Amino acid sequence: MTEHDVNLFSDQRRSNWIRLRTLILLRWVAIAGQLTAILIAKEAYNLQLELGLCLLAIAVSAIGNLVAMVSFPENKRLSEFENMMMTMFDLLQLGFLLYLTGGLHNPFSILLLAPVAVSASILKLRSNFILGGTTIVLVTILAVYHLPLRTQAGAFLRIPELFVFGNWIAIVIALVFLSVYSRRVTNEMNAMGNALLATQMALSREQKLTDLGGVVAAAAHELGTPLATIKLTSAELMEALPDGSELQEDASLIREQANRCRDILRSMGRAGKDDLHLRSAPLSEVLREAAEPHKDRGVKINMSFEPIEGAGLGQPLALRRPEIIHGLRNMVQNAVDFAKSEVWVESYWSPDMITVRILDDGPGYPVHMLGRIGDPFLRHRKTGAARDNRQSYEGMGLGVFIAKTLLERTGAELSFANGYDPQQRPAAKATPRGAIVEIQWPRAAVEQITAALGENRAMKI
Question: Which of 19, 160, 369, 396 to pair with 362, CA 20 to 30 A apart?
Answer without folding.
Answer: 396
